Amino acid sequence: MLESFGEKVKDQRIWEGLTLPKDYQWESRLFQNPMIVFVITGSVQLEINKEETHSVFASEMFITESNNLYGITMMEQTRLLICHVPPEVWFVEQERIDELIKEEGTLSEEFFKLPVKKVILRCLLLLEQYLKEAIYPSYFFELKRQELFYLLFYNYAKQDLLRFLQCILAKDIEFKKFVMNNYFKAKNVQELAKSANYSTSGFIKKFQKCFNDSPYRWMQRQKAKHISLEINRGIKSLQEIANEYNFSSFQHFSGFCKLHLGSPPSEILSKNRIKKTIN
């Protein structure tokens, strides 16, 4: 049995569910973003860079690191739930991240897995059902990702989290913090680079190393996520949102939404109202 279901914003997946048969092999070089992989039922054998092998069992989780080669073999029929975690999403927990950074001297490069505590497992099982129903907007699943972060920091010891999140914390955390605190103020990549005291070319190189994406594409995606949230909230008019994000015309705003969110803003708003009526 091979079953897949998930939820994503345009060009970026948030959650993904997989039911895979025994002996199914999944090999992927992860150039983009880390993922937290939860083994809900079953078990997997994990090979990293063809050098080391680990077993991960039901109710355990591990995190992948960008640019490693992973081979995952299902030791029996297995259900996986995957949370995609680009670097920027961790900063909803800025204070707790800062606390972990203070302990960074104890980081180890060894593979580390964690048991999935019961409170988190209950949330994951409910999330599986939400994904299968496919009626919830993407920003709902973004909130569920933030809920996961809260539960991680609340339910695990600092040293365990430090080892688990080492691939997130080890990559120029201060640069990432600067980007997250300042990208919304900058009109373009050149302005953000200047405020960081980098040449544009130097900034782009540093940014790609830390975020696994170009700064222009990343900034456009962040803008799209904020706009999607504003539209789905339904508090401001579409024209107010267009003005707030400095679009030269409503037509330009509509084109941006169609390109980055998949539909013009009026259609997004209409679909959201229909979903709310159904529910």
Low-confidence stretches: none
Strand content: 15-25%
Annotated CATH topology of the largest domain:
Jelly Rolls
**Assigned CATH architecture of the largest domain:** Sandwich
Structure description:
This protein has 279 residues and is an alpha+beta fold. It folds into two domains: 3-169, Sandwich (Jelly Rolls), CATH 2.60.120; 173-278, Arc Repressor Mutant, subunit A (Orthogonal Bundle), CATH 1.10.10.60. Helices cover 48% and strands 21% of the residues. The chain is built from twelve helices and ten strands. The chain has helices at 94-101, 118-133, 138-155, 158-164, 166-169, 173-182, 189-195, 200-211, 215-233, 238-244, 250-261, 265-278; strands at 3-9, 12-20, 25-29, 35-41, 43-48, 52-57, 60-63, 69-74, 78-84, 114-115. The protein has a six-stranded antiparallel sheet, covered by helices on one side. Strand 1 and strand 2 form a beta hairpin. Helix 2 runs antiparallel to helix 3 (138-155), helix 7 (189-195) crosses helix 8 and helix 9 (215-233) packs across helix 11. The longest helix has 19 residues, at 215-233. The relative contact order is 0.12. The model has no long low-confidence stretch (mean pLDDT 84).
